[in-house]
Amino acid sequence: ILIAVLRLVVVNAMKHSIWTTSTVAATVPIAMMIGIYMTYLRPGWIIEASLLGLVLIMLAVVGGRYTGELWFGNWFNLDAPQLAVWIIGYGFLASVLPIWLLLAPRDYLSAFIKIGTIAALAIGIVVLHPATLMPALTRFTDGSGPVFGGKVFPFAFITVACGAISGFHSLIASGTTPKMLQDERDARMVGYGCMLMESFVAIMALIGAVMLEPGVYFAINSPAGVIGGGAAACAKISSWGFPLSLQAMNHLAATMGETSLFSRTGGAPSLAVAMARIFAGSLGGGAVIAVWYHFAIMFEALFILSTLDAGTRVARFMLQDLLGNLWKPLGNSSSYPNILVTSALVVAAWGYFLYFGTIDPLGGINSLWPLFGIANQMLATIALCVATSAMIRQRKARYAWVTLAPLSWLFAVTMTASFEKIMSGAANVGFLAHAALLKAELARPAVGAARAAEITRLIWNDRIDAAMTAIFIFVVWVILADSVRVWAQLLLGAQDHAASEEEAAA
Fold first, then answer.
1. Closest CA to 417 of 8, 409, 163, 162
2. Backbone angles phi, psi at 189, to 5 degrees
3. CA atoms of 49 and 52, how far apart (whole Å)
């Protein structure tokens, strides 16, 4: 679900945008060229290779403006389901190709571009000091918002997910990062540095969001199933007290080099608009604002796609480990048939949620993002349980409050949000309440065939989401209960303490 929702953000940014899609697609052969360059032509010259890759990517961004004028330009004019299929295919290939060919060079490019871009954005914000246009509180603090339903507690704490605490990072830090460290002494800098950078990106994203006119923000981030499109969307948003005209939105889209910016849910396009305004205000002005917009989309897509590569591989390793307990040969991570089969299973799992998110009339993000937040915080809860157990095993129980305090808060937030998503009687919050509302609509004789098919799909999605949330609740309770059992045994002396860090981690 984590991987699927991040992919959905990319899809919503790329759909029906030839410039964006061609630019992001160009990063794949560029990364592979850099992989070959670092492996065979100039081994060890990482900075040099990364700078070469950056130059090629900038050329792809600038050249993407003209892709639509070429004979093959329409190949990149894809709708959301078509993009989902291509990304699913890419995800499978990326997970089975050698790491040096795509994953490593893409990560190098992503890291340098991400750090450099966010640092430049922060400097631009300080220099330009843009006005904050979004009010501190809006009418939607009551939980009736068009982007996400639910009150500030607990939903603010699962909406701002990775930027606050990232359970996904715990998987990467335990499964992938150790294999890439040259020196164990770098682990703390890399581990803490990555999380701090993630939080810094979140702060920049929040600043970007409040820089936008409220009407523009809601037009970009509200699903078409909620606000409609064109003039109807503008009228709906204006009725909320945020004036917006169709002419203003059309002008904004044209300025950014797009045909439309309505209902580009997921946050990436709205952040890109804010970033483009900041960068254009510092370098180039309005003449290059469209280039900056597509650079921002490429920057976001690049580091999101790198999580696809790493996340799929980590999930594959976990699946192989699990299957190896059932039949030992299935756990052989060196067997290429095993790699192909387990990669296909993992990609099919997140690909299902991605594809159905693209055909969801509510835009997918509206219903899947809360599930994403719950899953992410659930992983963080499990990681904090493991960390607490490791400290107690090493006779460092006096420091356990360091992990127990955030663990208690995360558990309370995750459980509250999970129960509300299942049990709430408000249709804009509870999955089952929304399914019941749709079922009542389906029973009306006036419902047409197209709408009936749409409602049936939405009901199925709601029930799947409710079932997944229930599974998350069960998993968290099992892990926490078992952790408490182990802590009690260790503290009461019924279980031996660990003699080393390695034994504690085991």
1. 409
2. -60, -45
3. 5
